Amino acid sequence: MPRTRQIVAQQVADRLFAVETAIDVALTRAAELSAAMPQARAEARLPAMIGQDALAGAAETFAALVEARRQIIATHASLDVAREQIGLREMAAGDMVPKPTTAPFTEASSPSSPPTGHIRAVA
Predict the structure, then answer these.
(1) Can you name the residues that pair with 113 across neighbouring β-strands?
(2) What is the pTM of this model?
(3) How many angstroms separate the CA atoms of 35 and 38, rounded?
(4) Domain ranges of the chain
(5) pLDDT digits over 80-92, tens only?
(6) Cβ-count burial 28-45 (b if 16+ within 10 Å, e if not)
(7) What is 6-39 written as a DSSP string?
């Protein structure tokens, strides 16, 4: 039974990582689009009102993707709790960087008081 749980958990984890990656790629592409539109307008020497609705739509899409990323991170955390509840140890999957032990930066935090944690040297 534990081996079956491990296999099923890995299948779910693989799909979770795929969604996380897809959202990050979509965020990157949405940001590129949002950056390209005003640049194209300026290069074409068009008035600012041209394409404003399209730029606003792209910005809303980007914001929605940021929210989707926040939600998938929350899903990841919930699945991590479920993994512990069914008695599975943490497996090395995805990137090899360990998860942070401190709470992620939130809107309630401010840049003047970032989350605390351990600082480590990197090469």
Answers:
(1) 110
(2) 0.70
(3) 6
(4) 2-85
(5) 999 999 988 876 5
(6) eebeebbeebeeebeeee
(7) HHHHHHHHHHHHHHHHHHHHHHHHHHHHHHHHHH
